[in-house]
């Protein structure tokens, strides 16, 4: 189990004179959840886009299952089983669950020009897949607009897995969700990893990342502050390592200062 | 758009799936408004004009023909609207296609069939131009096709005057007789049935003993055929799913691999081709082309599509709805002559109907997306 599914070695990305990423290294193993943490502006979005093939890195290499590769487009990444679920989820709320699940990759039946969208098969697969996650999709023909935020997130993840993802890149999957919804999604992510996928979970929420992650990479101002195994890292340490940590300590000191001066 | 939940039956019943009455399922269908509207319109005219001959064979064929003409372009407009775009150049395209048929046939001596094919290839070009401009520039199709509306209408007028010195091109009727393909757009179907019904005295006859209504006009068959085809396309094919996806969320669709640009361009070609079918039917029926033919038809097509349940924002609607929207339109525009109502009021009715339809559709969309 020590073989890395994907390795990103010394990735750098420049936009003109701006250094968006510098020497970022990350490894993802089968069945592991690698959490990528960072404050706003730390370079998370740029990193995701580089991992998913939208941007080409200026320096560094990407190694997928032992082979060095270059992604020319998101399609290339997808073909190698690296699927990204973006924050917008790529779901159409007016369309049914089934039609969303198979959007762009509809199962077909029939021959020649009379090939048709196999709606029955699609319905069956969609409700079966959603059922496996424990999301009772009441009716696969109901519009996605009727689902909760957590259910939509799970639908998007489940779709990526169904279409052959080996590595899942999840962009802030819990950021817009309430506590209960977030826990449903996190549970599903753990299940997905347990079934043998590698997961890169991008978030700025330590409380969501810490319980589920196996290792943690912290990004600050475009640079990696290192990757840590869970056993070497306490939640408090992780919190303070995020850019916000030090800032908050400083803020606390300053607030005390203000408090004291105002009392005098 | 939503597909009936057949898969539920072959599984153990999901305890969380509440039995929903058929009425509720129906309430969530986009074409409900147009269906209901059609029923109301028929009840209204049945009461007001039931004994005036509006619903005789001749009267029925009359309002069906008007409905079918509009229906042909409304169905294509509905598909485009579901795909998230408008085409305001449909009306101008009708005029342009008309002279593309008439001028080569009359002035250049082309066989009629070749000028019809020429008109269709021009339609593909115009549709492609509309589509590629919208897709490449990212400008609203409203603006792009509004420009095309003026360009096409102006070119139609200028070219016709330049070549013929006038704005109408008559004299096509003699060419229809022996043409191999003109009948597709102009022949009446089921003539035998109508003659037989006439001989039985069931439908009205002319002085010479032939029935007043000679058969089902070709345009009605086009209308029905296109409705079936478009519905099949939307509900049963991959391309149909792509139309909904392109109109519902362009970026999301693109992210999962739907060729949004190609889908939209093909839909623009669809509206231009439908406008040309409309032009063929009208030009061959009247035997002449007129540069003003199709004036304001683009707006009538949009009214029919919206009454038929299409959302202006795209991603939702139905071809059956648009066909019924056209039926309402045609029935009222002809039916009003059978009543005592001054025909001047027709447009008031039209606007009012559109307003009610939009309010109703808004309500439906909220039902569909907000789980009520």
Total helices of chain B: the number is: 16
Question: Using only CA atoms, what is the Rg of chain A?
Answer: 21 Å
What is the makeup of the main sheet of chain A? 6 strands, mixed
- Return the CATH topology of the domain at 4-94 and 143-233 in chain A: Rossmann fold
How many helices of chain A in DSSP terms?
9
- Class by alpha and beta content of chain B: mainly alpha
What is the overall shape of chain B? globular
**Biggest sheet overview of chain B:** 2 strands, antiparallel
Helix-strand category of chain A: alpha/beta
Strand arrangement within the widest β-sheet of chain A reads: 6-9-10-3-11-12
Please give the oligomerization state of what you see: heterodimer
Low-confidence stretches of chain B: 1-14
Q: Mean pLDDT of chain B, nearest integer?
A: 87
Cα distance spanning the termini of chain A: 62 Å
Show unreliable segments of chain A: none
Mean pLDDT figure of chain A:
85
Number of strands of chain B: 4
What is the chain-wise order of helices and strands of chain A? Answer: EEEHEEHEHEEHHEHEHEEHH
CATH architecture annotation of the domain at 4-94 and 143-233 in chain A: 3-Layer(aba) Sandwich
